[in-house]
Design brief:
Shape: globular
CATH superfamily: Pseudouridine synthase
Oligomer: single chain
Strand content: 25-35%
Largest sheet: 10 strands, mixed
CATH architecture: 2-Layer Sandwich
């Protein structure tokens, strides 16, 4: 059985809403509510009552992850993810030095005949924006903002641009073994005013492993918004 002291990862909590800085290596939810290999169960144990995930982060992506103790909030708040005033910002360390300073990517994501996810003309709408924060040698630090929330969207769009994530195993050939996980962190979330709470902006500090990676690659660890 895996155990996790979840309290140090709580960025903000109210009676009905939990905002976590999710550690890497933990799925947001499990196969069942009783699955101890996920953040949800450990938050349920901490809270002493049921909580529901409002969105999903990949197991090896760290950063802002939101839960509610109100089941009736789940669907209304989920609709905010596609609201034009919602900002979902990520920090990414990638291979290469982009020829652009910023770029918008509008490339649908779907499955090929083998079931592999990727950019596909018949896929679902997927839109991302990338900005270069710093570059050194053959690596770059990017800010990523997404206006849709497709599975592995940032990872797939970066592969599509030819700048896959450091530590990427699935969307890079050969897989990158320079870091034990994909170097991706959900760093900032801004939600618009809604019937449940006033506009909120949450930020999640970089985890130690990404800070060390950026230092080793001589990339700036001083991020500005």
């Amino acid at each position: 059985m895996r155990t996790l002291d979840i309290e140090p990862f709580i960025l903000s909590r109210t009676e009905d809403l939990f905002i976590l800085n999710k550690p890497h290596g933990w799925p947001t939810t499990g196969r069942t509510v009783e699955d101890d290999d996920c953040i949800q169960l450990h938050l349920i144990r901490y809270h002493g009552a049921m909580v529901w995930a409002l969105h999903q982060l990949d197991a090896d992506t760290s950063g802002i992850c939101c839960f509610t103790s109100r089941k009736d909030w789940v669907q209304p708040i989920k609709t905010l993810w596609s609201h034009p005033e919602t900002t979902k910002e990520y920090t990414a360390v990638v291979h290469g030095r982009p020829s652009w300073q910023s770029i918008d990517v509008d490339a649908p994501i779907g499955k090929d005949p083998t079931g592999q996810l990727g950019v596909h003309p018949d896929g679902k709408d997927a839109r991302s924006h990338f900005e270069v924060i710093d570059s050194h040698n053959d690596f770059s630090l990017l800010r990523a903002l997404i206006s849709t929330g497709r599975t592995h969207q940032i990872r797939i769009h970066l592969q599509h641009l030819g700048h896959s994530l450091v530590g990427e195993e699935w969307y890079r050939s050969p897989p990158c073994n320079l870091h034990p996980r994909q170097a991706l962190h959900a760093s900032r979330l801004s939600l618009p005013t809604n019937p449940h709470f006033e506009q909120q902006i949450y930020t999640a500090p970089l985890p130690e492993d990404l800070t060390r990676l950026m230092q080793s690659l001589k990339l700036s660890t001083l991020l500005s918004h």
